[in-house]
């Protein structure tokens, strides 16, 4: 499954801050903190997350996603 959203990102070392521009986007729903590791993903608000790009895998909703 692939999911696509429009937004911007900035880099800060190994972390990328992604800001999604879709009005109805809910970062808390997609990147649920209950199912992710804070060393991988940090939800900052409804449309902004930080992702650790040094990791080879991320857990999204308990699903292990590998880097391509």
What descriptive keywords fit this protein?
mainly beta, two-stranded antiparallel ribbon, four-stranded antiparallel sheet, single chain, 44% strand, 68 residues
Summary of the model, kept short:
The chain is mainly beta. The protein has one domain.
Can you describe this structure?
The protein is mainly beta and 68 residues long. The chain has one domain. The chain is built from 1 helix and 6 strands, in the order E-E-H-E-E-E-E. It has a 4-stranded antiparallel sheet, with no helix packed on it. The longest helix is centred in the middle third of the chain and has 4 residues, at 27-30. The two termini are 14 Å apart. The relative contact order is 0.23. The mean pLDDT is 88.
Principal-axes shape call: globular
Quickly count the helices. 1
Q: What Rg is obtained from the alpha carbons, in whole angstroms?
A: 11 Å
Mean pLDDT: 88
SSE blueprint:
Blueprint: E1 7-12, E2 15-20, H1 27-30, E3 41-45, E4 48-52, E5 57-60, E6 63-66
Antiparallel strand pairs: 1-2, 2-4, 3-4, 5-6
């Amino acid at each position: 499954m692939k999911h696509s959203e429009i937004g911007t990102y900035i880099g800060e070392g190994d972390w990328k801050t992604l800001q999604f521009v879709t009005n109805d986007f809910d970062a808390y729903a997609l990147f649920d903190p209950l199912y992710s590791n804070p060393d991988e993903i940090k939800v900052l608000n409804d449309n902004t997350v930080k992702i650790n790009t040094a990791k080879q895998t991320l857990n999204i909703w308990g699903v292990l996603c590998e880097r391509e």
